[in-house]
Amino acid sequence: MPADRLMRLDHPTPRSEFSEFYEREFTPQVRRAFVLLRSNEAANDVVHDAMIEVLKRWNDLREPGAYLNRSVLNRCRDLGRRSVTHRMMLSRLVERTNWPGPQEPLGDLFDRLPFNQRAAVVLRYYSGLSIAEIAEALGCPRGSVGPWIDRALKAMKETLP
Amino acid sequence: MTAIDEKLAELFHERAAAARPEPDLPAVLEGAERVRVVAGQTRLPVPRYRMLGIAAAVIVGAAGVVAVEWHRASKISPGLDRPQITYPDQLPAAPLTAPSSAPSFLTLATTPDGTGLVVRENTHTEPLSGAEATTPEASPWKTWPIGGQTVTDIDSTTPAGFYVATCCAPGGTIWRNGPENTKGTRIDYVLDGLLRATVDPATSTARVGDVVVDEPGVLDVSVLDRRSAVFLVDEPAPHLIVLSSDDFTATAHPDRRTIELPTGPHKPCGIVALEQGILVLAGGPVGIDPCVSDRAFIVDPETGAVITTIRLPASVKAINSDHIAHVIAVTVDGNVVIGQFGPPATEPLWSTVLEGDYLAAYLRT
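ok -> structure tokens follow
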């Protein structure tokens, strides 16, 4: 571990350092969360809350980027677990301009996949992460990632015209 | 790239381009939540929203204190009406050599010369059996002086660091990657949520995140998930206390539940969390080891019911879990055994994975 990192762990949160992190990470995280959630409100919410969590634990984090990844994805997963009613109400309230819509059969198929499969595919084909990085972000064994991606691709291939 | 790969990449980039990030760094620095859009409501201004939250927290906290005190006074009885627990007569045939799925990583602490702590790490990629376990390589960068104290517990931090608990100078000391971090003899930590819980029996102090609880008789702790932790308390009679909160900050007011434990000749002295319930070890202190145990039972954290009782393959002096389905324990002889639990709650499969002079062990999956 680099010496400067060790020193930083035992000092109060340097806000300028966190601010730089925030400026660098916020927009790409919201874009990726939007790919998964299809809601600007929800995407901004989950990244905002995850950033607060990162800030609280800044002094304990060795890899804040990795922790942020995981925190955002966990929050996206939690949102997906909420009740159908809540999701229906939310979908009426959030803005859906530029929505790919039902005329995008691939998008609709993708949105019906289980969360882990969707997240793994997004991290692979949108973020370009390695299998090991995806496993870390999703908090799962490496051996789970490949099958999730394979199953997702297979399901979409079989269903697409 | 295949056709489907290209279509997905195109879909994702189209969606990402439609996202509208709304950065609000000042709000994050202040710790203020974004105002949510809720069906049937208009947006509340943030200060009023926060005031309502604070008022609710104060009311809940005050009610919680009253309820807890009433509960402690009226419900936790040391009397004889608590159910007696019985354990299986048969010991498991340990060491077992039946194939057992192993955690990805096995991390161990030992004191080969009695003056320092060496953390060893082992990677299992294949199913293991007791006879075929490999010897881990020492990680030399993790050799620390521990001042002649004895390791009582270890746990991992993210991504490769360690908490180590030692005893007794007096009470316990918890070290993080070398330097002293806090006081205590027991620690549990989950990466998901970075939730850390410790207990220091010498000062009757229990901590979860930034929440500090004065808990006379507290013996051990285990984190159930990112929003809850369970403490084992011995006074006035053995019971569990489950603290739950969305956020264990210093100002949080966690929900608190008490689970009474059955009595018997073997007193509860240690706990670890598993997916199917809380594994409660029964035994007692021997020397500086606070819990030497050869039997245990699993409690449902929701209902408090005893799900099953088990016999351990040997008397163990330290135990840890992956919070899912495996426990790792160090026997009084210094050997390391792994137990693989159901579901369903059946007799766990035990494997001896290392023989030697180990003091504590930790599973990383």
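Residues 1-12, 83-103 of chain A have pLDDT under 50 and may be disordered.
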